[in-house]
UniProtKB/TrEMBL annotation:
Subcellular locations according to the entry: Cell outer membrane
Xref: CDD domains: BamD
UniProt KW keywords: Cell outer membrane, Lipoprotein, Membrane, Palmitate, Signal
Function text: Part of the outer membrane protein assembly complex, which is involved in assembly and insertion of beta-barrel proteins into the outer membrane.
Record text on subunit structure and interactions: Part of the Bam complex.
Domain Outer membrane lipoprotein BamD-like: 47-243
Name of the protein described by the UniProt record: Outer membrane protein assembly factor BamD
Pfam families: YfiO
Family: Belongs to the BamD family.
PANTHER family: OUTER MEMBRANE PROTEIN ASSEMBLY FACTOR BAMD, SOLUBLE LYTIC MUREIN TRANSGLYCOSYLASE-RELATED
Organism in which the protein naturally occurs: Methylobacterium longum
């Protein structure tokens, strides 16, 4: 038997050591084969059929025992490695962790699934679970947005790799929400700099919103804030251009009314500079250009 062979090998390794240390051991009756007996007791794992483990895991899910379900699916994955049961178990491990709000564990399981089974018919779902596990952890806009960046990257990868999957439409909607969140963070920082009269730093933040998140709800305010910041620095041409781009793309926006009023009280009006950074961005995104009033 394997256990007996292992003990014989252990005894063979220990015997020379006993001979060398014989004087120190005195007259003790030491059986070297017992040195490893307790430490290396073989563990006998019951041979549970794969379908039984899988059914047990599903039953745990039904009872909302997500931790118990994970244990069943983990056991299935380990006992039936490289089988289709293992593939299914790994995906269900990701799902059970997601349902149990163990989002980081769900991300890890999803990544393992995609690494092992990139061409699987369920790869899109694994990508979706990974994206949603990040999405569910998006923090308040006042906090660091690293998780939002990860969610956006995973959602975009889903749309790019699996554009015809049943999860693509939901991913696209959540991409817009996540982009809006990231834009909101930039706006918060930009407003802080504007209030502190650090106009160059504020401009950098508002330009980032316009260049990266021009289709979000924050774009209107960002253009108006750029009008304010440029005007405060005395860069009137850029202020006029920002107001013109704002007015042409969002003519009914209250932010445009504010920008227009700021220029008007100083005898100016919105005016486009077609070669400007802002004009090029909105021409690319919407096909529109701003017009002088």
């Amino acid at each position: 038997m394997p256990v007996t062979i292992r003990h014989r090998r252990a005894a063979a390794l220990v015997a020379p050591l006993v001979a060398v240390l014989g004087l120190g051991l005195g007259g003790c009756d030491l059986d070297p084969t017992n040195l490893f007996a307790e430490k290396y007791k073989p563990e006998i794992v019951p041979d549970v059929p794969a379908d039984k483990l899988y059914s047990d895991g599903l039953a745990k899910l039904e009872d909302s025992d997500y931790e118990g379900a994970v244990k069943k699916f983990d056991s299935l994955d380990k006992q039936y490695q490289y089988s289709d049961w293992s593939r299914k178990a790994l995906l269900m491990t990701a799902y059970a962790n997601y349902e149990g709000q163990k989002y980081d564990d769900a991300i890890s399981a999803s990544k393992r699934y995609l690494q092992r089974h990139p061409a699987s018919k369920d790869a899109a779902y694994a990508q979706y679970l990974m994206a949603m596990s990040n999405y569910k952890q998006i923090p308040d806009v006042t906090r660091d947005q690293e998780r939002s960046e990860k969610a956006l990257a995973a959602l975009q990868e889903l749309v790019q790799k699996y554009p015809t999957s049943e999860y693509a439409a939901d991913a696209k909607a959540k991409i817009q929400i996540t982009r809006d969140q990231l834009a909101g963070k930039e706006m918060e920082v930009g407003r802080f700099y504007l209030e502190k009269r650090n106009f160059p730093a504020a401009i950098n933040r508002f330009r980032d919103v316009v260049s990266r998140y021009q289709t979000t709800r924050h774009a209107e305010e960002a253009l108006e804030r750029l009008t304010e910041a440029y005007w405060a620095l005395g860069i009137t041409q850029e202020a006029q251009n920002a107001a013109a781009v704002l007015g042409h793309n969002f003519p009914e926006s209250p932010w445009y009314k504010d920008a227009h009023a700021l220029l008007a009280q100083n005898g100016l009006e919105p005016r486009e500079e077609k070669s400007s950074f802002l004009s090029k961005i909105y021409r690319t995104v919407t096909g529109k250009t701003a017009s002088a009033e």
